[in-house]
Design goal:
mainly beta; 16-stranded antiparallel β-sheet; two-stranded antiparallel ribbon; 1 helix
Length: 226
């Protein structure tokens, strides 16, 4: 066969592969509401009242606490997980996040959040990012699958024009050291949103613990609230 003809044939085969679209992010999860619980344990996301993660960065700290509180969102009893973030010793944000976990496969679903933003005087200045599944077309997203698979892509929030965070699992075998310790078999996610094209953030989850690193925030301690 003529060499030029052979090259053309090879390019004809490879070109579609090179320009093939990336897999879409899953945004419909066919959730069975009767299968969901407000309490449970995913290997990478613990949803048990009293469990707490404490993070620090050069600028501030972040405390994530699984509260005793629950909230009914879109017909589902969800667990309230509070995040309190400070900067320079001043409270800048408090969010109450609503999660439920599948009793069948341990997938953790995200049903919305209430957000309070603070100024330096301690006054609430806004509620940007607040949303609820079942309101204005918003639906629950998947925060963490029961079995993380490399390359999985899914929306964590499905609230058009308000909150559309999505994640891709880019590693399931990271080794990571933070002030709380050294961990292996760490899941690393790359988070993006179509609301802010080009912006990427990375989060790291250790088995049996949950989130250990979020941007510059690194886990310092974890466990039951004392």
């Amino acid at each position: 066969m003529n060499k030029a003809v052979l090259i053309v044939l090879i390019l004809a085969v490879l070109a579609p592969m090179a320009f093939a679209a990336e897999p879409a992010f899953t945004e419909d999860f066919a959730i069975d509401k009767s299968d969901l619980s407000s309490t449970g344990r995913n290997p990478y996301f613990i949803l048990e009242p009293g469990y707490q993660l404490y993070f620090k960065s050069a600028d501030g700290d972040l405390t994530i606490t699984v509260l005793n509180d629950t909230k009914l969102v879109d017909g589902v009893e969800t667990r309230v997980v509070e995040e309190r973030e400070t900067e320079g010793g001043k409270l800048i944000e408090v969010s109450r996040n609503y999660f439920a976990i599948s009793k069948r496969n341990n997938g953790v679903f995200y049903f919305g959040e209430d957000v309070d933003m603070y100024d330096k005087s301690g006054k609430i200045t806004g509620h940007g990012g607040s949303w609820y599944a079942g309101v204005d077309g918003a639906r629950a997203g998947l925060m963490m699958p029961g079995l993380p698979l490399l390359g999985a892509r899914f929306y964590q929030e499905v609230a058009p024009k308000l909150a559309m965070d999505r994640a891709e699992i880019v590693s399931i075998s990271d080794i990571r050291k933070v002030p709380a310790g050294s961990f292996d078999h760490v899941v690393r996610t790359e988070e993006t949103t179509p609301l802010e094209p080009g912006v990427k953030e990375y989060k790291y989850y250790a088995p049996g613990i949950g989130l250990i690193k979020d941007g510059d925030m690194e886990l310092v301690r974890y466990g039951a609230v004392r």
